Backbone:
């Protein structure tokens, strides 16, 4: 086991000393260890060990006494540029949200708009301790440029609909292959069919074939609500999950956004799938008056459920810590069971299950040697967090992303003392403000799609 004192790799690039560290044991259960130091070489954690009073040589040292080091938050499903539409479509049902607001406004987007909005999104994510985000949107060349320059990690997919014809899936595949491994390996990619109700069964099958051929993740909206599942049963005679199975998408690495409408009949197909995960964004479900992702069913099927925010046009924030708290509370309410989803389980969803949902187990989601140095420091001296009887309970029920003061991705400090280092936030806010009137114009009377699910 290498350590910070006499590592053949030489002095550490980054050394974090005196931290309490959130660790996972061999069974994946969460525990905390006090007064640890974390040794980072390049982008990788090389050791986590008890302090011995000395400070080994390192290029950069962070004194983390009084702080918790935990894996950075992973946003398993978002449309990051949609921060531009934050707050424009509230208190409406989902069909009106799409047909009267979002899809008519998305006609207006240019690639430059997407780039500017993504800068705002990454600033928000770095500020709230998100170190990886799985994005599903248009103009991902622009999104990839921002990921590269901002230092974040991302799983990028270029959205397509069957109304785009064969060109849709083709551009999604080309972009997935172009950007795979970019930004020093911080970008991985996915094929991104929009949803089971906007992409035909034939195109879903072609997507599964391409995913197999090129070893790509598939990121798709499916079974987003109970209503959608009911409509699918009425129109087609099978559920959205069954549509994925028939297409071959349960035999590949597939990330399902939402899964709120997953029903017990879906369980055999999901139990047989060993590389399928779900991203859950509970705040938006509550706003739209819906249920939430059925965590108990999915746990029984062995399907990892990661945390997500969806776009800020529905969730209002890209704050995954907030999603963790919502997931816990709404699941207890839906299950009518205060013992279900205890805090350590919520933290497991935020860490290892989120990594598994993206197919990135062994790379992110854990602080351990060999994993990427993607972590945040939480200031445990914040008044709202004291006193601490059980740190897991403190984090899930008292904590907020505001308590994070440092964000690190691939060993690089992106936020220090709550200051985002890689984004000129003021300039981005002003630039985006100058675009808003044009972006929200709906007088053209056209739309990118119509929602009927
Ligand atoms: Zn979505």
Residues:
């Amino acid at each position: 086991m290498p350590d910070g004192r006499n590592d053949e790799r030489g002095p550490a690039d980054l050394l974090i000393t005196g931290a309490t560290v959130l660790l996972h044991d061999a069974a994946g259960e969460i525990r905390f260890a006090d007064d640890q130091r974390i040794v980072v070489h390049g982008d990788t954690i090389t050791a986590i060990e008890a302090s011995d009073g000395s400070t080994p040589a390192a290029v950069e040292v962070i004194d983390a006494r009084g702080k918790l080091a935990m894996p950075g938050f992973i946003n398993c499903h978002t449309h990051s540029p949609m921060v531009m539409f934050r707050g424009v479509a509230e208190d409406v049902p989902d069909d009106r949200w799409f047909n009267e607001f979002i899809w008519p406004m998305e006609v207006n987007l240019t690639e430059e708009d997407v780039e500017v909005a993504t800068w705002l999104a990454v600033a928000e994510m770095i500020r709230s301790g998100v170190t990886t985000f799985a994005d599903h949107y248009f103009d991902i060349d622009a999104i990839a440029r921002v990921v590269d320059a901002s230092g974040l990690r991302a799983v990028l997919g270029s959205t397509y609909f069957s109304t785009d014809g064969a060109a849709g899936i083709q551009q999604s595949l080309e972009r997935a292959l172009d950007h795979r491994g970019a930004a020093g390996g911080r970008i991985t990619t996915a094929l991104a069919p929009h949803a089971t109700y906007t992409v035909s069964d034939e195109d879903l099958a072609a997507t599964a074939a391409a995913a197999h051929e090129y070893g790509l993740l598939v990121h798709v909206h499916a079974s987003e609500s109970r209503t959608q599942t009911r409509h699918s049963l009425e129109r087609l005679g099978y559920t959205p999950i069954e549509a994925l199975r028939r297409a071959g998408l349960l035999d590949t690495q597939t990330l399902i956004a939402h899964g709120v409408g997953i029903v017990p009949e879906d369980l055999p197909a999901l139990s047989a799938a060993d590389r399928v995960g779900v991203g859950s964004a509970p705040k938006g479900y509550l706003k739209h008056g819906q249920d939430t992702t059925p965590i108990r069913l999915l746990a029984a099927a062995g399907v990892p459920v990661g945390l997500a925010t969806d776009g800020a046009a529905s969730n209002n924030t890209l704050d995954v810590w907030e999603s963790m708290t919502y997931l816990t509370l709404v699941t207890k309410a839906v299950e009518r069971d205060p013992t279900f989803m205890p805090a350590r389980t919520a933290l497991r969803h935020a860490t290892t299950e989120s990594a598994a949902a993206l197919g990135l187990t062994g790379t992110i989601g854990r602080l351990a040697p060999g994993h990427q140095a993607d972590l945040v420091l939480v200031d445990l001296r914040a008044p709202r967090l004291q006193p601490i009887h059980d740190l897991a309970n403190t984090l899930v029920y008292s904590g907020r992303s505001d308590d994070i003061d440092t964000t690190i991705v691939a060993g690089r400090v992106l936020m220090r003392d709550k200051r985002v280092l890689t984004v000129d936030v003021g300039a981005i806010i002003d630039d985006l403000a100058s675009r808003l009137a044009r972006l929200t114009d709906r007088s053209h009377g056209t739309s990118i799609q119509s929602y009927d699910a």
